[in-house]
UniProtKB/TrEMBL annotation:
Keyword terms of this UniProt record: Repeat, WD repeat
Keyword presence, Coiled coil: no
Name listed for the protein in its UniProt record: DCA13 factor
GO BP terms, alphabetized: maturation of SSU-rRNA from tricistronic rRNA transcript (SSU-rRNA, 5.8S rRNA, LSU-rRNA)
Chain positions of WD repeats: 39-81, 255-294
Gene Ontology CC terms: small-subunit processome
Gene from which the chain derives: Dcaf13
């Protein structure tokens, strides 16, 4: 049978359908909008962020010129600006009740601020200021009690009412870049040091518990809010490692896809996924049990 191969006569030919499907997929990708808006207003680089524990629409950010801004995500505008520190804002965290928040900076101070804006005529003053001996590089608040932890040369546990730490925890001599309280077993802390360690502490025993050493430095870690013993570490070797703190010999999962150092990680409230930010200018969302991002 002579056959005419002119594609106009075969409109449902497989290759043509394939091309159509491919173009449709590409267009869907082009018009997909994960990006919603940008919050503009900082005069310098944004160094740290914190979420409000009770209000989904409130986010705090701290910049390299010591400025802290509170944002409303629904209106996408800045509610309030505080000149909090001299030099960098190194870390910030909100109190579990959401009425106040803490910042640490290069001026060796820890400051507690009210979440509400001051009344007319009131000065923008911190509730408390603690002058420390060294520069603090990170801070995190206990999930149930009036206790917070700072890190620098060591991990210090502070009572909100006192100006000196309740206890100091250290294992070796090295600068610690971040410290995080466990949201479920609230007396556990994890910290990342620049000598490639991840160290776990117990507040009740006031001693370090366990330590895992990786090949390269871990920038920060985040606890799974649903499984008390699982945490994910963002590493310099382009990967994220999910560990079970009961078996630290090897990670439960290695998450690969970034092509540069991973700088930050945070879990979704369901504990099923986490988001990571990297030096390769990309943000990726990983399922906890998969090795590649979705």
């Amino acid at each position: 049978v002579p056959r005419n191969y002119d594609p106009a006569l075969h409109p449902f030919e497989v290759p043509r359908e394939y091309t159509r499907a491919l173009n449709a997929t590409k267009l869907e990708r082009v018009f997909a909008k994960p990006f919603l808006s940008s919050l503009d207003g900082h005069r310098d680089g944004v160094n740290c962020m914190a979420k409000h524990p009770k209000s989904l629409s409130t986010v705090l950010s701290g910049a390299c010129d010591g400025e802290v801004k509170i944002w409303n995500l629904t209106k996408r505008q800045c509610i309030r600006t505080i000149q909090a520190h001299e030099g960098f804002v190194r870390g910030m965290c909100a109190r579990f009740c959401g009425t106040s928040f803490f910042t640490v900076g290069d001026d060796k101070t820890v400051k507690q601020w009210k979440m509400e804006s001051p009344e007319d005529g009131e000065e923008e003053e911190p509730i408390h200021t603690i002058l420390g001996k060294t520069v603090y590089t990170g801070i995190d608040h206990h999930w149930k009690e009036a206790v917070f932890a700072t890190c620098g040369h060591q991990v210090d546990i502070w009572d909100e009412q006192r100006t000196s730490p309740m206890c100091s925890l250290s294992w070796g001599f090295d600068s610690i870049s971040s410290v995080k309280f466990n949201p479920i077993e609230t007396y556990l802390l994890g910290s990342c040091a620049s000598d490639r360690n991840i160290v776990l502490y117990d507040m009740r025993k006031s001693t370090p518990l366990k330590k895992v050493i990786l090949n390269m430095r871990t920038n920060t870690l985040c606890w799974n809010p649903m499984e008390a013993f699982v945490f994910t570490a963002a590493n310099e070797d382009y990967n994220l490692y999910t560990f079970d703190m009961r078996f630290l010999e090897s990670p439960v999962m290695v998450h690969m896809d970034h092509v540069s150092a991973v700088l930050d990680v945070d879990y979704s409230p369901t504990g099923k996924e986490f988001v990571s930010a990297s030096f390769d200018k990309s943000i990726r969302i990983f399922p906890v049990d998969k090795g590649h991002s979705r």
